[in-house]
Amino acid sequence: MSRTASVTTGPYAPPVPSRTLTAVSADGARLHVEVHGPDDAPPVVLSHGWTCSTAFWAAQIRELATDHRVIAYDQRGHGRSPASPACTAEALADDLEAVLAETLAPGEKAVVVGHSMGGMTVMAAAGRPRFREHAAAVLLCSTGSSRLVAESRVVPLRAGRVRTWITGRVLGSRAPLGPVTPVAKRVLKYATMGAGSAPHRVEACARIVHACPRAVRHAWSAVLAALDLDHGVRQLQPPTAVLHGASDRLTPPVHARALAAALPNCLGLTELPGIGHMTPIEAPELVTGRIRELVDTHVTGAGPVRIKEGA
């Protein structure tokens, strides 16, 4: 994704990285990686969701890079990472391992943050040796491990076969999203954000999502529709915090509650009232604050976890 596809001013304008790298995954897929902040600072690894890119993390990168080494990468086919015919949960796990290998020293510990499909990436990688070597703690934002289409509330119908069928067709559509118009922004806001989301935040999300190639969007929608990573949740050993928007229609809070119940080392579930699916953009200070808490407690040892239920 070119930077002109994102907003160009304000907190959601993508920061310029200290350096860029290319991580090569197990199947040869090449991944665009950005490193922000001091090289000797505690590391944070950010994995974005479906139809997004490194630009999605602009607010977190801008705040954390003052005293953290922030590593963000584009999932295959997204942003500046070329598309690949391999679209599977295993490929996502391979890609995360490749990024960790490229950016962290042997044994170096980081906080790993995943939003939506990025959280699913973490679950898919949970049993991998390299992930376990490097993950000191995890933050899962607005994500789920299975039944994503069946539980989605994007289509305003009663749960059941009809809603599931229609939802699958809507989320898996091959239709182009087109330019970012007022109508397009209203549709995206309804589907993915809270009703009170500020216009500049809706604009940022729309520009990022609309920049995703429709073939990539369609290919990964099929993967998400069939996803079952419940086993990955049970294998996720690092201390893990769960953060979710209470108004999330795309992955409703039932997913977050299931994660919190199944995780072997859950630090707590925080549900954010009035917030939808795009938590890092809708509630940037809260997401950044959770990341800092995890780094302070599990990487630098500077302070206790201060996660509150319902904060």
From TrEMBL:
Gene3D superfamilies: alpha/beta hydrolase (3.40.50.1820). GO terms for molecular function: hydrolase activity. InterPro entries: AB_hydrolase_1, AB_hydrolase_fold, AB_hydrolase_sf. Residues 44-287 form the AB hydrolase-1 domain. Keywords: Hydrolase. This is Alpha/beta hydrolase.
